[in-house]
Design brief:
The complex is a heterodimer of chains A (422) and B (346). Chain A is α/β, with parallel strands linked by helices and 422 residues long. Chain A contains 19 helices and 14 strands. Chain A has three domains: 7-66; 83-371, Rossmann fold; 380-420. Helices cover 46% and strands 16% of the residues of chain A. The longest helix of chain A has 24 residues, at 237-260. Chain A is elongated and about 95 Å long. Chain B is an alpha/beta fold. Chain B has helices at residues 13-21, 27-31, 35-42, 46-60, 68-75, 84-89, 111-121, 146-163, 174-179, 189-205, 228-248, 282-286, 331-343; strands spanning 100-105, 134-139, 181-185, 209-215, 252-257, 259-264, 274-279, 291-298, 301-308, 316-322, 325-328. In chain B, the strands form two sheets. A nine-stranded mixed β-sheet of chain B has the order 3-2-4-5-1-8-9-10-11, sandwiched between helices. In chain B, strands 6-7 form a two-stranded antiparallel ribbon. In chain B, α3 crosses α4, α7 packs across α8 and α10 (189-205) packs parallel to α11. Chain B is globular. The chains are: A alpha/beta (422), B alpha/beta (346). At the A-B interface, α3, α5, β1, α6 and α14 of A face α3, α4, α8, α9 and β3 of B. The structure holds adenosine-5'-triphosphate (ATP) and magnesium ion. Magnesium ion binds at residues 111-112, 141, 143, 215 of chain B. Chain A: One of its GO terms (cellular component) is Rad51B-Rad51C-Rad51D-XRCC2 complex.
C-alpha cells in the first residue's frame, strides 16, 4: 500500500528549483510525499533555506494532492445500498443490521473446532451466489495459513444448503463448478509472505472480481514465529516487532476493504491464561465468562493492540450450560442439542453485545432458535398425549394446560438468556 | 419573492441548466422539494442539492436580531454527550469548545459511538440550547458506519421531538443532520498530516463546523515508526495545528486514543512483572490535550474517568451504550441482574 507519490510529478506546481532543493535535503533527501510529511515546517526552513511561507506552501500543495475527500454521511448512505454480507444466521444478521459489514475487518475468534473455518466456508459459498439469492455474485480470496481449507467440505455445504440450485442435474453441476472456480485459495506459510501478498493483492482482486477476502487465520503465523515472546525475551523487542507486523497487516487489510468496498473476514485463536498467574492486564473486553466462574480465563490471542484494529469482533465458543452445573435448568437440558455452540458479538460499531446459538451441520453453520425448538417439542408431546388432531379444529382444541406449559417454557428460555447475558 | 427566478441563484452553470431542464423556473418550484428528491431528480450530489435549498431559505429569513454578546456565548456552547453524568464531569454541559478533549479506551468501550453521538448532538439547534453547528469526522480505523450514525441521529431527533412541546415543526431534519457530518477516511499517517495541513480551507468554506473528531489519533502513529523522536515531532506539530483550529475557529476538538500495555519490569528477584493498560502514544503526547478521559469497564459497567483537566475535578462517572447511542447509566438493569443472580444463584 504505497500511497506515497513522487514529488517530481508535482513539478509544474512546485517548480524545478524547489524540487531540486528538496532533493538535496541533507542526509535524507525528500523525494516523496511521505518524506515531505515526515519533516516539520521548521526543518524545511532550516535545511533548505526556504522562507516560512514557502515551506508552508510546499506542504500545502502536496497535501492537497493526496488528501482524501470529505463525504457527507447522507452521500455515504445513498452510495452503498447493501453494505452487508448476509451470514444466513438470522440473529446475527439482524443485530449487525444485515450481516458482515463491508469496508472493514471482521474477526472471528474461537478455540479449535468452534466453527470458524466452517463459517468462513459458508460465507465463501454465499458470496459466490447470484445477488437474487442473497449472495454478492463475486469471487472469494481465501488466504489459508493453517491448511484448513477443504474444498470437499465446501461442496457438501453447498449441496446441502441449496439442494435445488446445486442439484445433481446438469445445471446444478454447472452452478457448482462456477461456485468452486470463483473461490481462490492461497496458501501462505510465513507472516512476511502474508504482508507481501497483501501488498500485491489489488490486481488479484480486480482480475477475479473478489467480493470477499478471508484470512484464516491471522494469528497462527505470527504466533508460531514469535512463540511466547513475553516469557522468552521479556517485554521488549520481539513483542513490539510482532505487534508492528500485525498493525501493518491490519492497515493493509483495511485499505483493501475500504478501497474495494468489500468485507474482510479474519479468524483468530484464543488463549487461556490462569487467572492467578495473569501478568497481562485483564482483558479489556467485557469478560466472556462470568467473573465469578472458576478456572482459566479465555480471551482472544494477539493482545490489545491488534484488538483495536478489528472493527467487529465475534467470539465463537462451546455452549457452556453444562459447566454451570448449579443452574436449575435441567428441564431445558434436553431441549439443547449436545453440539450446541454460541456466538457473541463482543465488539461492533453497530451492534449491541448479543449472543446467538448455532450448531454445525451438513449445510454449514445453522442458527439454533429456541422458540421453534420449544414449539416442536411441545407439538411432539402434545401428539403423544392426545394423538394428532384434525386440521380444522386444531386452533381451539389445544388444551389450555399445554398452552400454559408452552408459554412457561419459552419464558424460562428467555429468562435464562437474559440472566446469562443481560 | 417566490417569483424569483431560479436562474438568479448563485449556482454552477451545469446545475442551473439541469434545474431548468427539469422544469424548475421559480424559487417557489424548488420550495416543494427535499434535498434527496432534488438530488435524485436532476442528478446532483446531496450536498449540492442542500446548498441550493439553503440558499432559498437564507433568502427567506434574512435578519436575525440578537446581541453580539449572546451570539458569542452561543458560539461557545459545549456539545452534549447525551449522558448527563459525563456532561457534568466535563464542566456542566458537555465537551468544551475551543479546546482539545481526548478520550482513551480499550477496544469496544464506545469511543466511535461517542464520536458519532457528538456529531449528531453538535447540530442541536440554538432554540433547544444546542450549538447548532456542523461536524467533521476523520476516520482512521474504518469504523465509521453510516447506518449506525443514522440510527443514533434518528433516536436523538425523536428524543428532542418528545421534549419539545410547542414546536409543530420538527426541530431537526434527519436528512439535513446526515448531510452536515463530513467524513474523511484516511489510510496512513501522511494522509492524516496532509489533511490537517489543508483543513483550514475546509473550515473557512464551512464556517458552521463546531466539532472536529479524529478516530483515532493513535492508529497510524503506532506503526512503522523506527524513529520515535520523529513521531513525537510530528505529533507535536499536529497538536499545535489542532490547538490553533480549536481556538481560531471555536471548535471542539475531540480525539480518540487507544490503550497500550505498559510493562514494568520489576527486577530479577520478583517473580512477576507488572503490566498496566495506559493510553497509547507516550507521555509527551499526554501533555498535548486539555482534557483527558479514560474509558474502562468495571463490574460490567462502563466508566469514564476524567484523569487530566486544568480546571475540573477528577471524577468518575458511569455511562452506557444502547441502540439509541450514548446514554446515562440506568441502575435498573443492574438491579434486575442482581435479582437474577439471587434467584438462580449463578
Ligand atoms: N446498536 C447498539 N446497541 C447497543 N450497543 C451498541 C450498539 N452498537 C454498538 N454498541 C456497543 O458499542 C460497542 C462498540 O463501541 P465502539 O465501536 O465505539 O468501540 P471503540 O471504543 O471505538 O473501539 P476501538 O478502540 O476498537 O475503535 C459495542 O461492542 C457495543 O457494546
Ligand atoms: Mg473505534
Amino acid at each position: 500500500m504505497s500511497s506515497t507519490r513522487k514529488l517530481t510529478r508535482l513539478n509544474p506546481k512546485l517548480g524545478k528549483k524547489t524540487i531540486y532543493k528538496l532533493n538535496s535535503f541533507p542526509r535524507t533527501p525528500v523525494n516523496t510525499t511521505k518524506e515531505l510529511f515526515s519533516r516539520t515546517e521548521l526543518e524545511l526552513v532550516e535545511c533548505c533555506n526556504f522562507k516560512v511561507e514557502t515551506a508552508r506552501n510546499i506542504q500545502k500543495r502536496a497535501a492537497k494532492w493526496i488528501v482524501p475527500e470529505f463525504v457527507s454521511v447522507l452521500d455515504m448512505m445513498t452510495e452503498n445500498n447493501s453494505p452487508f454480507l448476509a451470514t444466513s444466521l438470522k440473529g446475527l444478521d439482524e443485530a449487525l443490521s444485515g450481516g458482515i459489514p463491508f469496508s472493514s475487518i471482521t474477526e472471528l475468534v474461537g478455540p479449535t473446532r468452534s466453527g470458524k473455518t466452517q463459517l468462513c466456508l459458508t460465507l465463501s459459498m454465499l458470496t459466490t451466489l447470484p445477488e437474487t439469492m442473497g449472495g454478492l455474485g463475486g469471487g472469494v480470496c481465501y488466504i489459508d495459513t493453517e491448511r484448513s481449507f477443504n474444498a470437499d467440505r465446501l461442496i457438501v455445504i453447498a449441496e446441502n444448503r441449496f439442494p435445488q440450485y446445486f442439484g445433481k442435474d446438469e445445471r446444478g453441476q454447472a452452478n457448482l463448478d462456477k461456485m468452486t472456480s470463483s473461490i481462490h485459495k492461497m496458501d501462505i506459510t510465513s507472516s512476511k509472505e502474508l504482508t507481501k501478498r497483501l501488498d500485491e493483492l489489488q490486481e488479484f482482486i480486480i482480475e477475479n472480481d473478489v467480493k470477499l477476502l478471508i484470512v484464516d487465520s491471522i494469528g497462527s503465523l505470527v504466533r508460531k514465529e514469535y512463540q511466547n515472546p513475553v516469557k522468552k525475551c521479556g517485554w521488549g523487542g520481539p513483542l513490539m516487532e510482532r505487534n508492528d507486523i500485525l498493525l501493518q497487516q491490519a492497515s493493509k487489510l483495511k485499505y483493501l476493504a475500504e478501497s474495494f468496498r468489500i468485507p474482510v473476514v479474519v479468524t483468530n485463536q484464543v488463549i487461556t491464561r490462569n487467572r492467578s498467574e495473569t501478568v497481562l492486564p485483564r482483558e479489556c473486553f467485557r469478560p466472556i465468562k462470568k467473573s465469578r466462574e472458576e478456572g482459566p480465563e479465555v480471551t482472544a490471542a494477539l493482545g490489545n493492540t491488534w484488538a483495536h484494529s478489528v472493527t467487529t469482533r465475534i467470539m465463537m465458543n462451546k455452549f457452556h450450560i453444562r459447566n454451570l452445573s448449579n443452574l436449575k435448568f435441567t428441564i431445558l437440558n434436553d431441549l439443547f442439542p449436545p453440539n450446541l455452540q454460541e456466538l457473541t458479538i463482543v465488539k461492533s460499531p453497530i451492534a449491541a453485545n448479543i449472543t446467538i446459538y448455532y450448531t454445525i451441520e451438513n449445510e454449514g453453520i445453522v442458527e439454533f432458535v429456541y422458540s421453534e425448538n420449544i414449539e416442536k417439542e411441545d407439538k411432539r408431546q402434545q401428539e403423544e398425549e392426545i394423538g394428532p388432531m384434525e386440521e380444522t379444529d386444531k386452533s381451539d382444541a389445544v388444551p389450555s394446560q399445554s398452552l400454559d406449559k408452552k408459554k412457561r417454557k419459552s419464558d424460562v428460555a428467555e429468562w435464562f438468556i437474559s440472566a446469562l447475558w443481560a | 419573492m417566490s417569483a424569483r427566478l431560479v436562474s438568479s441563484l448563485n449556482l454552477r452553470p451545469s446545475t442551473r441548466t439541469k434545474l431548468q431542464k427539469a422544469g424548475f423556473q421559480t424559487v417557489k418550484d424548488l420550495q416543494e422539494t427535499t434535498p434527496i428528491e432534488l438530488s435524485k431528480e436532476i442528478g446532483i450530489s446531496n450536498n449540492e442539492a442542500l446548498n441550493i435549498l439553503q440558499q432559498i431559505k437564507k433568502n427567506k429569513v434574512t435578519s436575525i436580531s440578537a446581541s453580539e454578546a449572546l451570539q458569542q456565548e452561543r458560539k461557545l456552547c459545549p456539545i452534549s454527550t447525551s449522558c448527563e453524568a459525563m456532561d457534568q464531569m466535563l464542566g456542566g454541559r458537555g465537551v468544551p469548545v475551543g479546546k482539545i478533549t481526548e478520550f482513551c479506551g480499550a477496544p469496544g468501550m464506545g469511543k466511535t459511538q461517542l464520536g458519532m453521538q457528538l456529531c449528531v448532538n453538535v447540530q442541536i439547534p440554538q432554540n433547544l440550547s444546542g450549538p447548532e453547528g456542523e461536524a467533521i469526522f476523520i476516520d482512521t480505523e474504518g469504523s465509521f458506519i453510516a447506518q449506525r450514525a443514522a440510527e443514533i441521529a434518528r433516536a436523538t431527533i425523536n428524543k428532542l421531538n418528545e421534549n419539545s412541546v410547542t414546536e409543530c415543526d420538527p426541530p431537526m431534519n434527519f436528512d439535513i443532520v446526515m448531510s452536515k457530518i463530513y467524513v474523511s477516511k484516511v489510510h496512513n499517517c501522511d494522509e492524516l498530516i496532509a489533511l490537517i495541513k489543508v483543513l483550514d480551507e475546509f473550515l473557512q468554506e464551512h464556517p458552521r463546523v463546531k466539532l472536529l473528531v479524529i478516530d483515532s489519533i493513535a492508529f497510524h502513529f503506532r506503526q512503522q515508526f523506527d524513529d520515535m523522536a520523529l513521531r513525537t515531532r510530528l505529533l507535536n506539530g499536529l497538536a499545535q495545528d489542532l490547538n490553533k483550529f480549536a481556538q481560531s475557529y471555536e471548535l471542539a476538538v475531540v480525539l480518540f486514543n487507544q490503550m497500550t500495555t505498559k510493562f514494568i519490569i520489576s527486577g530479577k528477584y520478583n517473580l512477576k512483572d507488572q503490566a498496566a493498560l495506559v493510553p497509547a502514544l507516550g507521555e509527551s503526547w499526554g501533555h498535548q490535550c486539555t482534557n483527558r478521559i479514560v474509558l474502562y469497564w468495571r463490574n460490567e459497567i462502563r466508566c469514564a474517568q476524567l484523569v487530566k483537566s486544568p480546571s475540573l475535578q477528577e471524577t468518575t462517572v458511569h455511562y452506557q451504550i444502547n441502540s439509541t447511542g450514548v446514554r446515562d447509566y440506568q441502575a435498573d438493569s443492574l438491579n434486575s441482574k442482581r435479582r437474577w443472580e439471587e434467584l438462580y444463584d449463578i
